[in-house]
Amino acid sequence: MPPAGLRKRHQTEGRDLTRPASPEPLPFAVYDNHAHLEFEDGFDQLDPTESLDLAAAVGVRGVVQVGTDLETSRWSAALAQHDPRVLAAVALHPNEAPKLFEQGQLSAHLSEISRLAAQPRVRAVGETGLDFFRTGEDGRAAQIESFETHIEIAKANKIALQIHDRDAHDEVVATLKRVGAPEKTVFHCFSGDAKLARICNDNGWYMSFAGTMTFKNAPTLREALSVAKPELTLTETDSPFLTPEPFRGRPNAPYLLPHTVRRMADTLDEDLEAVCARVAANTERVYGSWDPAEAGEVAA
Ligand SMILES: [Zn+2]
């Protein structure tokens, strides 16, 4: 199986690096549709199997493991082959694309992403998209070219698209409209407001809510959740980043997803079990079944 600790999270300054305790289990099992299990973070590192075991014990039955470059995309695809609780997403992150373009490597790497996307347990192309926060004007053309190619790869393989959108809402929407969005399009770690939620509603695009929606300073995200069509909402950890309250800043992992799901139910003033059941059904609609037999894959 792929080794743990392929990447190390270097932002340790001023953070409490102890791992939070497990939350109370959810009444109905859900999926974390965006996590980076290859990252080591904190004092008490979990390997992917331990992390998935802890998650399963609190009602997080499956994870979409997301790549950000060739190495992590290959790792994600390999982990999904190995563990039935994992499906993979493969892509070059929007902040990687301009660097690869400068090195003359972008198209070769995109070809390899396209090859990986054909594997049966790779069910999404992501995370791709646009990031105008970390990439300046100079890198935008390469970023947009990479995003467009990822959209085409998702459509060619009839799998989902996971979008990273940082400070680039208008351009992401414009690109999706120009190129034509895949049938299953997901805004990972949705960061928009009610206006963007309405645009997603109108286009049938999914909105995945992360730990950010639990943050004190995020009333806009909670408003967006209230506006989002219930059948288009998903949830994720983006672990090891974006740990939900009350553990903001500490190491994150899929087993902490219940904090976010509980906050979603509170925000919507809905029964927790009903929210879990709906989000789980939405997730299976986007990525298909985690169960290799149900998904019609050849048994290993
Ligand atoms: Zn991510």
UniProtKB/TrEMBL annotation:
<feature type="binding site">
    <location>
        <position position="164"/>
    </location>
    <ligand>
        <name>a divalent metal cation 2</name>
    </ligand>
</feature>
<dbReference type="InterPro" id="IPR032466">
    <property type="entry name" value="Metal_Hydrolase"/>
</dbReference>
<feature type="binding site">
    <location>
        <position position="36"/>
    </location>
    <ligand>
        <name>a divalent metal cation 1</name>
    </ligand>
</feature>
<feature type="binding site">
    <location>
        <position position="127"/>
    </location>
    <ligand>
        <name>a divalent metal cation 1</name>
    </ligand>
</feature>
<protein>
    <submittedName>
        <fullName>TatD family hydrolase</fullName>
    </submittedName>
</protein>
<feature type="binding site">
    <location>
        <position position="188"/>
    </location>
    <ligand>
        <name>a divalent metal cation 2</name>
    </ligand>
</feature>
<dbReference type="GO" id="GO:0016788">
    <property type="term" value="F:hydrolase activity, acting on ester bonds"/>
</dbReference>
<dbReference type="GO" id="GO:0005829">
    <property type="term" value="C:cytosol"/>
</dbReference>
<keyword id="KW-0479">Metal-binding</keyword>
<feature type="compositionally biased region" description="Basic residues">
    <location>
        <begin position="1"/>
        <end position="10"/>
    </location>
</feature>
<keyword id="KW-0378">Hydrolase</keyword>
<feature type="region of interest" description="Disordered">
    <location>
        <begin position="1"/>
        <end position="25"/>
    </location>
</feature>
<feature type="binding site">
    <location>
        <position position="238"/>
    </location>
    <ligand>
        <name>a divalent metal cation 1</name>
    </ligand>
</feature>
<dbReference type="GO" id="GO:0046872">
    <property type="term" value="F:metal ion binding"/>
</dbReference>
<dbReference type="InterPro" id="IPR001130">
    <property type="entry name" value="TatD-like"/>
</dbReference>
<feature type="binding site">
    <location>
        <position position="34"/>
    </location>
    <ligand>
        <name>a divalent metal cation 1</name>
    </ligand>
</feature>
<dbReference type="GO" id="GO:0004536">
    <property type="term" value="F:DNA nuclease activity"/>
</dbReference>
<dbReference type="Pfam" id="PF01026">
    <property type="entry name" value="TatD_DNase"/>
</dbReference>
<dbReference type="InterPro" id="IPR015991">
    <property type="entry name" value="TatD/YcfH-like"/>
</dbReference>
